[in-house]
Amino acid sequence: MTAAAQTMPAEGWTTADGRKIGPVLMEMKNITLRFGGVKAITDISFDIREGEIRAIIGPNGAGKSSMLNVISGFYVPQEGEVWFRGARRPPMKPYEVARQGIARTFQNIALFEGMSVLNNIMTGRLTMMNTNIAQQALWWGRAQREEDEHREKVEKIIDFLEIQHIRKTPVGRLPYGLKKRVELARALAAEPKLLLLDEPMAGMNVEEKEDMCRFILDVNDEFGTTIALIEHDMGVVMDLSDRVVVMDYGKKIGDGSPDDIRSNQAVIDAYLGVSHD
Amino acid sequence: MVSQTPTGELCSIPALLARNVQVHGAKAAYREKEFGIWQSWTWAQTAQEIRNMALGLMVLGINRGDHVAIIGRNRPALYWSMVAAQMCGAVPVPLYQDAVAEEMAYVLDHCGARFVIVGDQEQVDKVLEVQDRLPNIEHILYHDKRGMRKYDHSHLNWLHDVAEEGRAGHQRVEAELDARIAELTWDHTCVMLYTSGTTGKPKGVVLSNRNVIETARNSSEFDRLAAGDDILAYLPMAWVGDFIFSVGQAYWTGFCVNCPESAATMMTDLREIGPTYFFAPPRVFEGQLTSVMIRMEDAGRFKKKLFDHFMAVARRVGPDILDGKPVSGMDRLRYALGDLLVYGPLKNTLGFSRIRVGYTAGEAIGPEIFDFYRSLGINLKQLYGQTEATVFITQQPDGQVRSDTVGVPSPGVEVRIADNGEVLYRSPGTFVAYYKNPESTASTKDPEGWVATGDAGFFEEGTGHLRIIDRAKDVGKMADGSLFAPKYVENKLKFYPNILEAVVFGAGRDRCTAFINIDLTAVGNWAERNNIAYSSYQELAGHPKVLDTIQRHVEEVNASVAQDRMLSGCQIHRFLVLHKELDADDGEMTRTRKVRRNIVAEKFSDLIAGLYDGAKQVSTRTEVTYEDGRKGYISATLELRDAKVVPVAKSRKEAA
């Protein structure tokens, strides 16, 4: 789909491989984020549509992770508005954002190393647990029923990501590639509308990358989850994503389909460098 | 109650299913671990599932005599689809699921399958890849929906949908289905299985209902298998053994077939199920023993001492207790204490707590490995069989178990030794024919029904047990005319945990040489404990210290081979450790992991030349095939070593 950013039908479209892209799910309007005197993000606007895979790329220090942190509510921008599901989102705590249906993985894996894979993924369902600590401590009646329901959902995800064999293994003993997959599983356990992936393939070998790509596509396909991801591997980005935002020094320098981005001079300059004489 | 005449009612798998619903209706027939829980189906539920599937196949227009290819890991739905196909008068043809698309194409083309039933997307992709060359394929049905949404579904169906359609349309096709079930006889084809083929293209072995059911009955009675037994179905569905154990015997006795969650969880699932009847090729037992030994090496000193002490007791008296031979009261007490402290917990860890009958076959098993399991009180036995015999040729009765024989002829089987030493048999399980291959059928099975196994062996005097030496065609002569039996030496080598595979050369030569594959688990663990750094299989395989260890093993084997006067010429003079594992994807092994000697010799001819011309080093480049079928190359420089041999010239003269 070369419809790109400029001329997109508001109700969405169907991609070449038959996936449905819906209306706008999240919109960032003129976001500016400052840390003291340092401007991390300058006046950036873009949207994320339902069902799409949206990549945010850019050289190191471009402000990509900051952008993801704005989406996840961890940073509150000084200027600009975040719109989610048709309403302006007031500044919120990250856990409130999570309750709204946004889950994420981290650039540096943030799992509980001593806990089993199963328990780590169960923590992903924390925002959906309705029993209080006393009920859970007694683990009787509703608390028990609730845990069973959550466990069932978690087992479906374990099956989906093919990690049955490490279900009971402490995360600390797993190799890097599998930890990344467990982190994805935990994010999925929250049944997010929007899934944020911060460098899901960083440090992986080719085979692990291929696996991860397949899982990301499958998640998008099977659960209809909207995905926003930051990634450095251009091959992966161009293959996976429907639309790409390019950032450089905190500014947006490109936005469009992978094909548009590939031929965008500003993007080429930012990546290859250009002499300032 | 059970009619056992050839013309009786129970002359097909669907008939046995109906009987099981009557007799064991509420008893578990299948279990499968999914979503972390063992799901189970009773015989009554199973019958319903299978019937719906059969109705669905009828709706899709399946004909009598159609071939239905079945590809996937062991899952109840795929077992059901085999029986559903039989109900429709069609012939199930299970295929090896790890075969690459090219290999599948040959079999799919040869059997002319109209229907292909597969487990998941991976298999669908493989079939689609070769489908344009296979005009016979009309419908592909898949069991696992995942990732399938975007596929063109004009010839693709979800198996569940097919069963639902069958249920909805039952009134249209039910009468026809019942007629087809009723017309199944003893002589109808039950299943067609492709032999892995150590040489040439795979051959389709046609097995009739008589072959399967009579063999299942005989073998079930031999080991008193009953409805209360449990097995774990984890071996390839395309292998005759899995068909006999998980379908033949399961439907005959009504016992429960348990399917693991995935290949990677097999060991956990084994422990959870604790089967009472278990089959595994020697490499599974070897793998388990290796992992136990590795873990004991890492255990604390007290535990290690305790383990060593009681294992010594077990080795001394365990097998005798199992065989019911007289053992002193004191030893019985020691053994009982050992059972409480060591053997019981160990068996539980291995998943062998409830095992009543265990079998191993396919390859020779190391005596130490065999005795280890038997000394723990696990009734592990050996059998000898092949696809053409519907598995069973000989097996070991309880109480007459040894590691170096394969037992006495199975019930109903006649065995004799041909003049050239080849083992021949004739039995109710003797296959009908090779599909579309009358020449091979004629050359394998003579008009009186005797089948040549291709293995050389002899009956031991006194005990009447059969001993297999080697493949008849592999048993050759060396340049000086002495006997060359590579398998015999290779097996001795493979009994060392550090050695995964060995290939010995020497036919027509003046001395023997060998290729060795290290076992990455065992050698890797040893490297870790000795602070030896390595970054790849290749590097570890070429490490001088590893070579030293392997050299010691080879020299020990030489000493042992030298003891056998007939085979003392087979000592290994030179050897090398290969830079890659022999693999079925590269054609070096069959899917059942048997080495294809000729292909290995051809592929690594430069290395063999090096072994015989005395070179100290050889550089080589080898083609490898990745799991997705792509090809690549690895280069390596291998060190060739000399091994000490025991002089035997004298003894041979004496013998002459």
Task: Give a structural overview.
The complex is a heterodimer of chains A (277) and B (656). Chain A has 2 domains: 15-101 and 192-276, Rossmann fold, CATH 3.40.50.300; 112-189, no CATH class. Chain A contains 10 helices and 12 strands. Chain A has helices at residues 64-71, 94-99, 117-123, 133-138, 142-160, 176-189, 206-223, 234-240, 258-262, 265-272, and strands spanning 13-14, 20-21, 24-35, 38-49, 53-57, 79-84, 87-88, 102-105, 194-198, 226-230, 243-248, 251-256. In chain B, the strands form 7 sheets. A 5-stranded parallel beta sheet of chain B has the order 4-3-5-6-7, with helices on both faces. The relative contact order of chain B is 0.07. The longest helix of chain B has 23 residues, at 301-323. Chain B folds into 3 domains: 13-279, ANL, N-terminal domain (Rossmann fold, 3-Layer(aba) Sandwich); 282-429 and 445-471, no CATH class; 476-655, ANL, C-terminal domain (GMP Synthetase, Chain A, domain 3, 2-Layer Sandwich), CATH 3.30.300.30. Chain B is of the alpha/beta class. Chains A and B meet through helix 5 and helix 7 of A and loops of B. Chain A: Keywords: ATP-binding, Nucleotide-binding, Transport. Chain A: This is Amino acid/amide ABC transporter ATP-binding protein 1, HAAT family.
Structural class of chain B, by secondary structure, is alpha/beta
Low-confidence stretches of chain B: 1-7, 650-656
**Major sheet of chain A: size, sense and barrel closure?**
6 strands, mixed
CATH topology of the largest domain in chain B: Rossmann fold
Q: Helicity range of the residues of chain A?
A: 25-40%
Can you tell me the CATH topology of the largest domain in chain A? Answer: Rossmann fold
Q: The biggest beta sheet of chain B, please?
A: 5 strands, parallel
Name the pair of protein chains with the most residues at their interface, and give those residue counts.
A-B, 18 and 13 residues
Average pLDDT level of chain B: 90
